[in-house]
Amino acid sequence: MSEKRQARKSEEFSAAEIGALAHLYRAEVYRSTIWRTRLDTTTNWAVVTLGVALSITFSSPTASPMPLLLVGILIMLFLALEARRYRYFNVFRARSRWMERFFYVAMLRDGDLHTEDDWPEILAEDYYAPRYHVSFLVAVARRVRHNYLWILVIQSIAYVGKLVVHPFPVSSLENFIHRARIGPLVPGEVVLGIGTVYILSWVALAIWVGRRDARRAEKRGGLPTMG
Predict the structure, then answer these.
(1) How many domains is the chain partitioned into structurally?
(2) Average per-residue pLDDT in the chain?
(3) % pLDDT > 70, the chain
(4) Do the domain assignments include residue 5?
(5) Which residues span the domain enclosing 192?
(6) What is the percentage of the chain residues whose pLDDT exceeds 90?
(7) Element (H, E) at 184
(8) How far is residue 54 CA from its own chain's centroid?
(9) Which of 47, 79, 208, 223 is the most buried (most CB within 10 A)?
Protein backbone atom coordinates (compact mmCIF):
# COMPACT_ATOMS: atom_id res chain seq x y z
CA MET A 1 0.00 0.00 0.00
CA SER A 2 1.39 3.47 -0.89
CA GLU A 3 2.15 6.08 1.79
CA LYS A 4 -0.78 8.15 0.53
CA ARG A 5 -3.16 5.21 0.91
CA GLN A 6 -1.72 4.35 4.34
CA ALA A 7 -2.27 7.92 5.49
CA ARG A 8 -5.81 7.89 4.13
CA LYS A 9 -6.53 4.65 5.96
CA SER A 10 -5.34 6.06 9.30
CA GLU A 11 -7.43 9.22 9.22
CA GLU A 12 -11.18 9.66 9.61
CA PHE A 13 -13.37 11.34 7.03
CA SER A 14 -14.13 14.94 7.87
CA ALA A 15 -17.69 16.16 8.30
CA ALA A 16 -17.56 17.83 4.88
CA GLU A 17 -16.33 14.62 3.25
CA ILE A 18 -19.03 12.54 4.94
CA GLY A 19 -21.64 15.00 3.69
CA ALA A 20 -20.25 14.82 0.17
CA LEU A 21 -20.26 11.01 0.27
CA ALA A 22 -23.85 11.04 1.52
CA HIS A 23 -24.94 13.20 -1.42
CA LEU A 24 -22.92 11.02 -3.80
CA TYR A 25 -24.61 7.89 -2.45
CA ARG A 26 -28.07 9.45 -2.87
CA ALA A 27 -27.20 10.36 -6.47
CA GLU A 28 -26.08 6.81 -7.27
CA VAL A 29 -29.22 5.30 -5.71
CA TYR A 30 -31.37 7.73 -7.71
CA ARG A 31 -29.60 6.90 -10.97
CA SER A 32 -29.85 3.16 -10.35
CA THR A 33 -33.58 3.58 -9.61
CA ILE A 34 -34.12 5.45 -12.89
CA TRP A 35 -32.31 2.81 -14.91
CA ARG A 36 -34.14 0.04 -13.06
CA THR A 37 -37.40 1.63 -14.22
CA ARG A 38 -36.11 1.59 -17.79
CA LEU A 39 -35.38 -2.13 -17.47
CA ASP A 40 -38.98 -2.73 -16.41
CA THR A 41 -40.19 -0.72 -19.42
CA THR A 42 -38.52 -2.95 -22.01
CA THR A 43 -39.71 -6.07 -20.20
CA ASN A 44 -43.26 -4.72 -20.32
CA TRP A 45 -42.90 -4.10 -24.06
CA ALA A 46 -41.87 -7.73 -24.57
CA VAL A 47 -44.81 -9.00 -22.50
CA VAL A 48 -47.31 -6.77 -24.34
CA THR A 49 -46.09 -7.73 -27.82
CA LEU A 50 -46.22 -11.42 -26.89
CA GLY A 51 -49.75 -10.89 -25.60
CA VAL A 52 -50.77 -9.28 -28.89
CA ALA A 53 -49.26 -12.17 -30.84
CA LEU A 54 -51.11 -14.69 -28.66
CA SER A 55 -54.39 -12.84 -29.19
CA ILE A 56 -53.97 -12.80 -32.97
CA THR A 57 -52.81 -16.42 -33.19
CA PHE A 58 -55.58 -17.87 -31.04
CA SER A 59 -58.32 -15.56 -32.29
CA SER A 60 -59.68 -18.35 -34.51
CA PRO A 61 -58.80 -21.97 -35.38
CA THR A 62 -57.75 -20.91 -38.87
CA ALA A 63 -55.45 -18.10 -37.74
CA SER A 64 -51.79 -18.51 -38.67
CA PRO A 65 -49.15 -19.30 -36.00
CA MET A 66 -46.71 -16.96 -37.79
CA PRO A 67 -47.24 -14.04 -35.36
CA LEU A 68 -45.76 -16.19 -32.59
CA LEU A 69 -42.64 -16.70 -34.71
CA LEU A 70 -42.33 -13.08 -35.80
CA VAL A 71 -42.78 -11.76 -32.27
CA GLY A 72 -39.53 -13.51 -31.36
CA ILE A 73 -37.69 -10.89 -33.43
CA LEU A 74 -39.24 -8.09 -31.38
CA ILE A 75 -38.53 -9.91 -28.13
CA MET A 76 -34.84 -10.22 -29.07
CA LEU A 77 -34.77 -6.53 -29.98
CA PHE A 78 -36.22 -5.60 -26.58
CA LEU A 79 -33.76 -7.96 -24.92
CA ALA A 80 -30.83 -6.24 -26.66
CA LEU A 81 -32.11 -2.82 -25.56
CA GLU A 82 -32.61 -4.05 -22.02
CA ALA A 83 -29.12 -5.58 -21.86
CA ARG A 84 -27.64 -2.23 -22.89
CA ARG A 85 -29.65 -0.48 -20.19
CA TYR A 86 -28.64 -3.12 -17.67
CA ARG A 87 -24.96 -2.33 -18.21
CA TYR A 88 -25.63 1.27 -17.14
CA PHE A 89 -27.80 0.17 -14.22
CA ASN A 90 -25.10 -2.24 -13.07
CA VAL A 91 -22.54 0.57 -12.81
CA PHE A 92 -24.70 2.75 -10.58
CA ARG A 93 -25.90 -0.16 -8.45
CA ALA A 94 -22.33 -1.39 -7.93
CA ARG A 95 -21.16 2.04 -6.79
CA SER A 96 -23.98 2.48 -4.30
CA ARG A 97 -23.49 -1.06 -2.96
CA TRP A 98 -19.76 -0.39 -2.64
CA MET A 99 -20.39 2.65 -0.47
CA GLU A 100 -22.98 0.80 1.61
CA ARG A 101 -20.62 -2.08 2.33
CA PHE A 102 -17.38 -0.26 3.02
CA PHE A 103 -18.53 3.14 4.27
CA TYR A 104 -21.97 2.98 5.85
CA VAL A 105 -21.73 -0.51 7.33
CA ALA A 106 -18.26 0.21 8.69
CA MET A 107 -19.45 3.51 10.16
CA LEU A 108 -22.49 1.90 11.81
CA ARG A 109 -20.25 -0.80 13.27
CA ASP A 110 -17.74 1.72 14.56
CA GLY A 111 -15.28 1.22 11.74
CA ASP A 112 -14.98 -2.49 12.42
CA LEU A 113 -15.62 -3.76 8.90
CA HIS A 114 -13.05 -2.07 6.62
CA THR A 115 -12.05 -5.31 4.90
CA GLU A 116 -10.97 -3.35 1.82
CA ASP A 117 -8.25 -0.94 2.91
CA ASP A 118 -8.22 0.90 -0.42
CA TRP A 119 -11.97 1.00 -1.10
CA PRO A 120 -11.99 4.82 -1.53
CA GLU A 121 -9.26 4.54 -4.18
CA ILE A 122 -11.16 1.81 -6.03
CA LEU A 123 -14.29 3.96 -6.02
CA ALA A 124 -12.34 7.04 -7.09
CA GLU A 125 -10.76 5.14 -9.98
CA ASP A 126 -14.20 4.03 -11.14
CA TYR A 127 -15.30 7.67 -11.28
CA TYR A 128 -12.05 8.83 -12.87
CA ALA A 129 -12.11 6.20 -15.63
CA PRO A 130 -15.73 4.98 -15.85
CA ARG A 131 -16.37 1.73 -17.66
CA TYR A 132 -18.96 -1.00 -17.90
CA HIS A 133 -18.55 -3.64 -15.21
CA VAL A 134 -20.09 -6.48 -17.23
CA SER A 135 -19.91 -7.46 -20.88
CA PHE A 136 -22.89 -7.27 -23.21
CA LEU A 137 -23.12 -11.08 -23.27
CA VAL A 138 -23.28 -11.26 -19.47
CA ALA A 139 -25.92 -8.51 -19.44
CA VAL A 140 -28.04 -10.42 -21.98
CA ALA A 141 -27.64 -13.67 -20.04
CA ARG A 142 -28.66 -12.08 -16.74
CA ARG A 143 -31.78 -10.54 -18.24
CA VAL A 144 -32.69 -13.88 -19.84
CA ARG A 145 -32.16 -15.69 -16.55
CA HIS A 146 -34.24 -13.27 -14.49
CA ASN A 147 -37.02 -12.28 -16.92
CA TYR A 148 -36.89 -13.25 -20.56
CA LEU A 149 -36.51 -17.00 -20.21
CA TRP A 150 -40.10 -17.23 -18.98
CA ILE A 151 -41.33 -15.04 -21.83
CA LEU A 152 -39.49 -17.20 -24.37
CA VAL A 153 -40.78 -20.42 -22.81
CA ILE A 154 -44.37 -19.14 -22.97
CA GLN A 155 -43.83 -18.16 -26.62
CA SER A 156 -42.53 -21.64 -27.46
CA ILE A 157 -45.28 -23.49 -25.58
CA ALA A 158 -47.95 -21.33 -27.21
CA TYR A 159 -46.52 -22.03 -30.67
CA VAL A 160 -46.46 -25.79 -30.11
CA GLY A 161 -49.95 -25.63 -28.62
CA LYS A 162 -51.25 -23.79 -31.66
CA LEU A 163 -49.88 -26.47 -33.96
CA VAL A 164 -51.37 -29.23 -31.81
CA VAL A 165 -54.95 -27.94 -31.46
CA HIS A 166 -55.68 -25.76 -34.53
CA PRO A 167 -57.44 -25.99 -36.92
CA PHE A 168 -58.28 -29.37 -35.36
CA PRO A 169 -56.39 -31.67 -32.95
CA VAL A 170 -53.29 -33.14 -34.52
CA SER A 171 -53.61 -36.81 -35.45
CA SER A 172 -49.99 -37.84 -35.95
CA LEU A 173 -46.39 -36.67 -35.70
CA GLU A 174 -46.22 -36.30 -39.47
CA ASN A 175 -49.24 -34.04 -39.41
CA PHE A 176 -47.68 -31.95 -36.61
CA ILE A 177 -44.46 -31.49 -38.60
CA HIS A 178 -46.45 -30.65 -41.72
CA ARG A 179 -48.32 -27.88 -39.87
CA ALA A 180 -45.03 -26.27 -38.84
CA ARG A 181 -43.93 -25.60 -42.42
CA ILE A 182 -43.66 -22.02 -43.66
CA GLY A 183 -44.98 -21.83 -47.20
CA PRO A 184 -43.70 -24.24 -49.84
CA LEU A 185 -40.00 -23.51 -49.25
CA VAL A 186 -39.35 -24.07 -45.52
CA PRO A 187 -40.26 -27.57 -44.34
CA GLY A 188 -41.61 -28.22 -40.87
CA GLU A 189 -38.51 -30.14 -39.82
CA VAL A 190 -36.35 -27.06 -40.37
CA VAL A 191 -38.76 -24.77 -38.50
CA LEU A 192 -39.01 -27.10 -35.51
CA GLY A 193 -35.24 -27.69 -35.50
CA ILE A 194 -34.50 -23.97 -35.45
CA GLY A 195 -37.11 -23.48 -32.74
CA THR A 196 -35.52 -26.17 -30.58
CA VAL A 197 -32.07 -24.61 -30.94
CA TYR A 198 -33.64 -21.21 -30.23
CA ILE A 199 -35.12 -22.12 -26.85
CA LEU A 200 -32.25 -24.41 -25.77
CA SER A 201 -29.74 -21.61 -26.49
CA TRP A 202 -31.54 -19.26 -24.11
CA VAL A 203 -31.77 -21.97 -21.44
CA ALA A 204 -28.05 -22.71 -21.78
CA LEU A 205 -27.24 -19.00 -21.55
CA ALA A 206 -29.27 -18.65 -18.35
CA ILE A 207 -27.59 -21.69 -16.77
CA TRP A 208 -24.14 -20.45 -17.79
CA VAL A 209 -24.51 -17.00 -16.25
CA GLY A 210 -26.04 -18.44 -13.09
CA ARG A 211 -23.04 -20.71 -12.55
CA ARG A 212 -20.62 -17.96 -13.51
CA ASP A 213 -22.07 -15.52 -10.97
CA ALA A 214 -22.13 -18.23 -8.30
CA ARG A 215 -18.43 -18.99 -8.87
CA ARG A 216 -17.53 -15.30 -8.68
CA ALA A 217 -19.51 -14.88 -5.45
CA GLU A 218 -17.81 -17.91 -3.91
CA LYS A 219 -14.40 -16.72 -5.01
CA ARG A 220 -14.77 -13.33 -3.32
CA GLY A 221 -16.25 -14.86 -0.17
CA GLY A 222 -19.55 -13.00 -0.35
CA LEU A 223 -17.90 -9.59 -0.52
CA PRO A 224 -19.24 -7.07 -3.06
CA THR A 225 -17.34 -6.16 -6.17
CA MET A 226 -17.56 -3.34 -8.67
CA GLY A 227 -19.80 -5.20 -11.13
Answers:
(1) 1
(2) 86
(3) 88
(4) no
(5) 13-219
(6) 54
(7) none
(8) 24
(9) 79
